[in-house]
Write a structure and sequence with these properties.
This protein is α/β, with parallel strands linked by helices. The protein has a single domain (about 45-225), classed as 3-Layer(aba) Sandwich (Rossmann fold), CATH 3.40.50. The protein contains six helices and ten strands. The protein has helices at about 45-55, 65-80, 95-105, 140-150, 175-180, 190-200; strands spanning about 15-20, 25-30, 35-40, 85-90, 105-110, 125-130, 150-160, 185, 200-205, 210-215. A six-stranded mixed sheet has the order 5-4-6-7-10-9, sandwiched between helices. A four-stranded antiparallel sheet has the order 1-2-3-8, with no helix packed on it. Helix 2 packs across helix 3. The longest helix is centred in the first third of the chain and has 17 residues, at about 65-80. The chain is globular.
Length: about 240
């Protein structure tokens, strides 16, 4: 018998309810951050993930791919001072975004657990971090976003691009859902709630892009719990 509740992998709220079954997967919905996620027992194996990732053909010099990435790069570059240090987290086999940001005058490091697995990169801190088409793959987004917060310097930007989940009625036939490695789906509300917890500032400059600013120590203010609720039973612990 299926449990009536699950813990949210994004914010750790304990009161997530079953949302929909689209065989062979069950999906759950968080009432706090509004993330939708695959049942933890149905997460893909590392072999399935590796096979799917090797199907990607992301050419650093592909003009159309660069235009796609510019949806994140352009608003991010508008907010960056010159000559900063950046990390392309989950860059994949063809780090085109890192090349674009290097061409714009920034120093880029690469990290990807399959293609650029360099632990030393995770021992540094960065002025900005990019995650393009990455966060939907996270099996443990709670831990991943905590890591990204630690990697980001105060006064830095975390730039995320992922296709936002919008129309519940279309979820079952949504092309983005059909990728077996896409296991968490976010809404603008999810990033806004996350920002409140970390005392970040959240900007959604266009569809499917979230720019999260981590204030410097002198700028930080006490954030309202807002959608994260109180620390009572069922509230998230992120």
């Amino acid at each position: 018998m299926m449990s009536p509740q699950r813990e949210c992998p994004v914010c750790q709220a304990a009161s997530c309810r079953h949302f929909i079954q689209v065989a062979p997967y069950d999906y759950w919905r968080c009432p706090f951050c509004e993330a939708t996620f695959v049942d933890p027992a149905q997460l893909p194996s590392s072999d399935i993930e590796r096979a799917q990732y090797h199907l990607h053909r992301n050419d650093v010099h592909d003009v159309r791919y660069r235009q796609f990435l510019a949806r994140l790069a352009s608003p991010l570059l508008e907010r960056l001072a010159p000559n900063l240090s950046g990390l392309d987290y989950g860059c994949g086999p063809g780090p085109a975004l890192a090349a674009m940001l290097t061409e714009a005058g920034h120093r880029m490091a690469l990290y990807d657990p399959l293609f650029f697995d360099d632990p030393a990169v995770l021992g540094q801190r960065y002025d900005f971090i990019t995650c393009t088409e990455v966060v939907e793959h996270f099996h443990h987004p709670f831990a991943e976003f905590a890591r990204l917060d630690q990697l980001l310097k105060p006064g830095g930007w975390l730039a995320v691009m992922t296709t936002f989940q919008t129309d519940d009625a279309a979820f079952a036939r949504w092309h983005y859902r059909r990728d077996p490695t896409h296991v968490v789906f976010y809404r603008p509300t999810t990033f806004q709630a996350m920002a409140r917890h970390y005392q970040w500032q959240c900007d959604i400059p266009c569809a499917n892009v979230a720019l999260l600013y981590k204030p410097g120590r002198h700028q930080a203010t006490c954030a309202s719990l807002g959608a994260w609720g109180s620390k009572g039973e069922g509230s998230p612990t992120l």
